[in-house]
Design goal:
single chain; Heat Shock Protein 90; 22 strands; Beta-Lactamase; 800 residues; seven-stranded mixed beta sheet; Helix Hairpins; alpha/beta; five-stranded antiparallel beta sheet
Length: 800
């Protein structure tokens, strides 16, 4: 006798049931009976068994039960839900009930064992959580390692600075320089590793500020020019005049990318030249360009080095990748630089790549979208006549071409070129015979056969041609004291190579003087262009910090709280040499104990200290009414470190490792603020108030801005008074609600630091247990921050 479908289902290993219109089982197989503990093979009748609703959905949510009841009532053809059954004391199994409508008041149900699927999903979730936890632990580990490494680096850099100021012979000076250079290399490596973790965490930030692209590019190349010149490499910079003088973007990240490429070019090139070019790009369709970004900056770094094969080029920008194992041994490095550069360029909406440079070497390039700044500096015209005749003498064709272009950009077209000293002498004699002598001659120092010294001597000895003004082009690091004395005899001045556009033009402005004092030329190289934007960042060499007065701390009493004895001693030496009286404390608790009875003008506060850390010490100082500036000294590389320090009442952050000039600059900065009567903590910090963003938010409606600020100040004054009252009364709900109001209104006018403190108060009263002590401290800081905000608003011209 043939089996029916119903017979197959009854013997199937898949549990099945037939349900009536109320969801009560009227038929089932053995596996369903066992699984659901249904007793009896043939129910006596309707209602004698509980509904599947009670059998299966007893652990379900009210929503799930309601959905099942709606299904039974005739809505929908299919219903599904998951449920569990305890197999034994240790094992929980998962099942899925699938109910199909067969006909009116009759339903067919199948039950699937989904335990393996649930276990797999659980393992995947656990694996994901473990991976995220491991990534977080790694980032924290790297941050901690960075903190620990920065502390001894601080000592090395600081002590090498002090050592360089002592009387050393040439050999000792070179040893000290190498120590300092090695410390800077190690610091760069640490920063690269931290950048990789920031990229992975999506925390690498791209700024948008006005800057001068020429200064950034020239300054970046200048950082490695000396290293290139030590290898006898020629370095040239060719920047198109079509690039705006002021653009909006992130100059520090631009510098970081370019510095990586130029350093690699120098590292992998033994002979020849490095050429850095920048010009407006055409705009690749794949670039992420916003409506405001109207400029594409294309930068390329070309070298004549070892070159890169096609298979290697495809993988070159991945993390830790190097061409082959021998690269690390021969040239050093970690393989991080190009990967970081790729990520930075991508975040900026650009592209980066590499191609071969024929006949040898490589050409690395990147292009990024930027914005033309609204305010452009007024170009400075050179006062010289267009009839001025130039002779350029250099054995490198690229240098001659670039210098010719710089001069042509200012209207100087009477330019002759010579690739050797002999050719230069011949041209100078010919020009005299033609009654068109050269007025200015730029001479390279390092040339084969006849170098710059010898050529200058030949010109000076010859009365027929020695009327021209001579200027020496010298690789940086090759102009010692003896060479400068020769300059006084033979040259009117000098320029470091690679020649920078602004310094060349500054030198030409002095052409009317027959003799240029050597010290004046050095000042020209150091000073900033007065007509440049004051907001544009200037790339400084680590070896040549901005000069500060040696007596910057004269007459000040400064407290130094630092638990590391060597670093404490280093900071004390810096300050005492600058004229300060220094009080020392080995930790925060000792600092607190030394405060009574002391007239302290300034505090340098380490963060990680035993007994009482820097945050706690700063809070104690503020709570006890002391108002002097507090400078946090921290080796932390975390992005929120500055915000955390400021929220504790500190005024500024000095990152480790720092240099003597960094310390004294801060001392001078606070002295200037004290003299001008400016508030110490706010300055131009956009976290206190961001006028540019506020302007954008209200679309430039100055009347609305003034009205909103006036209303905000009045309301917030009232809200803070209410907050202090309800806090004292321990009215939890009122504290939370008032803090929330202050947070929202503060963010609306870009007072983000005040909003953050209000949010902190709100959070203290949201969780369990209530953190009363921390909340009290935050309420005090909220009032102080509001005072600083009002001062800042007054500085911006608002009427309160």
């Amino acid at each position: 006798m043939a089996k029916t479908a119903n017979d197959y289902l009854k013997t199937s290993r898949i549990p099945y049931l037939i349900l009536d219109g109320d969801g009560v089982p009227v038929e089932w197989n053995a596996y369903a009976e066992t699984l659901l503990s249904i007793s009896g093979k043939n129910p006596a009748g309707k209602g004698t068994l509980p509904s599947i609703r009670e059998i299966v959905l007893e652990q379900s949510t009210p929503g799930e039960i309601e959905r099942f009841d709606t299904f039974l009532a005739g809505h929908g053809l299919f219903f599904s839900c998951d449920f569990t059954r305890q197999k034994d004391t240790d094992t929980l199994s998962w099942y899925r009930l699938n109910v199909h409508r067969q006909e009116e008041n009759r339903f067919f149900a199948l039950i699937d064992d989904i335990t393996p699927q649930i276990i797999k999903e659980t393992h995947l979730i656990e694996a994901k959580e473990n991976a995220e936890k491991a990534s977080l632990n790694r980032s924290q580990f790297l941050a901690n390692i960075s903190h620990e490494i920065r502390t001894p680096i601080q000592t090395i850099i600081g002590m090498s600075e002090l050592l360089a100021e002592t009387r050393l012979d040439e050999e000792q000076t070179e040893y000290a320089r190498q120590v300092r250079f090695s410390a800077d290399v190690l610091l760069t490596l640490i920063n690269d590793i931290l950048d990789i973790t920031k990229v992975e965490a999506g925390k690498l930030k791209i700024e948008a500020i006005d800057f001068d692209p020429v200064e950034v590019i020239e300054g970046t190349v200048d950082l490695v020019a000396m290293e290139a010149h030590k290898k006898s490499l020629e370095v040239n910079i060719d920047i198109s005049t079509d690039i705006p003088a002021a653009i909006v973007g992130d100059p520090n990240r631009l510098q970081q990318v370019l510095l990586n490429l130029v350093k690699n070019a120098v590292k992998f090139t033994e002979t020849g030249e490095i050429l850095v070019r920048a010009f407006p790009g055409t705009g690749d369709p794949e670039l992420s360009v916003s409506e405001q970004q109207d400029q594409i900056l294309y930068v390329e770094v070309t070298d004549t080095g070892i070159g890169i094969s096609e298979p290697v080029r495809k993988r070159l920008f991945t993390d830790f990748y190097q061409a082959d194992a021998s690269t690390t041994g021969k040239y050093g490095g970690t393989g991080l630089g190009l990967s970081i550069s790729r990520n930075i360029v991508t975040l900026m909406g650009g592209k980066i790549g590499v191609m071969p440079n024929e006949p040898r070497g490589s050409r690395f390039w990147f292009e990024i979208p930027l914005i033309t700044a609204a305010t452009q500096p007024t170009p400075r015209k050179l006062p010289l006549s267009g009839q001025t005749r130039f002779l350029l003498v250099d054995d490198n064709p690229s240098t001659l071409t670039i210098l010719t272009g710089m001069l042509a950009a200012q209207g100087y077209y009477q330019v002759s070129r010579a690739e050797s000293g002999e050719r230069a002498l011949s041209l100078m004699h010919s020009s005299v015979q033609a009654r068109a002598p050269f007025n200015i001659v730029l001479i390279d120092l390092v040339m084969p056969d006849m170098d710059g010294w010898r050529l200058a001597a030949e010109i000076t000895r010859d009365p027929k041609i020695n009327q021209a003004q001579l200027y020496l082009m010298v690789p940086e690091g090759m102009l010692g004291a003896e060479a400068k004395m020769k300059l006084l005899d033979w040259f009117n001045g000098y320029l470091y190579k690679p020649v920078k556009r602004r310094l060349l033009y500054d030198l030409l402005r002095e052409h009317s003087q027959r003799s240029i004092d050597i010290e004046v030329v050095e000042e020209l190289e150091a000073e900033d262009d007065d007509d440049d934007m004051t907001s544009a960042p200037t790339v400084q060499k680590p070896e040549e910090p901005v000069p500060v007065a040696d007596n910057a701390a004269e007459g000040l009493t400064i407290l130094v709280a630092e638990d590391h004895p060597v670093n404490r001693r280093l900071l004390v030496i810096f300050l005492e040499k600058a004229g300060a009286r220094v009080i020392q404390a080995a930790d925060g608790q000792e600092a607190v104990e030394k405060f009574p009875g002391q007239e302290v003008d300034l505090v340098f506060m380490d963060i990680q200290m035993p007994r009482k850390n820097g945050y706690e010490t700063a809070q104690w100082i503020r709570e006890n009414g002391y108002t002097m500036p507090i400078i946090a000294c921290t080796a932390s590389a975390q992005d929120d470190e500055r915000e955390k320090c400021l929220s504790c009442g500190m005024n500024e952050v000095l990152p480790k490792p720092y240099r003597r000039s960094d310390v004294l600059e801060l001392v001078e900065q606070f002295r200037r603020r004290e003299k001008s009567g400016q508030p110490e903590a706010s300055g131009d910090d956009p976290s206190v108030f961001n006028p540019a963003l506020f302007f954008d938010i209200l679309m430039g409606d100055t009347e609305a801005m003034a009205s909103l600020v006036h209303e905000y100040v009045a309301q917030t004054e009232e809200h803070i008074t209410i907050l202090e009252k309800v806090f004292a009364e321990e009215d939890r709900a009122a504290v939370e609600a008032t803090a929330h109001l202050i947070k929202g209104s503060s963010r609306s006018i870009t007072a983000n630091r005040l909003a953050d403190i209000a949010e902190e108060i709100e959070m203290h009263y949201t969780g369990e247990p209530v953190q009363t002590d921390a909340g009290n401290n935050a309420v005090v800081r909220l009032r102080d921050e509001f005072r600083l905000l009002k001062q800042r608003l007054l500085q911006e011209g608002y009427t309160l």
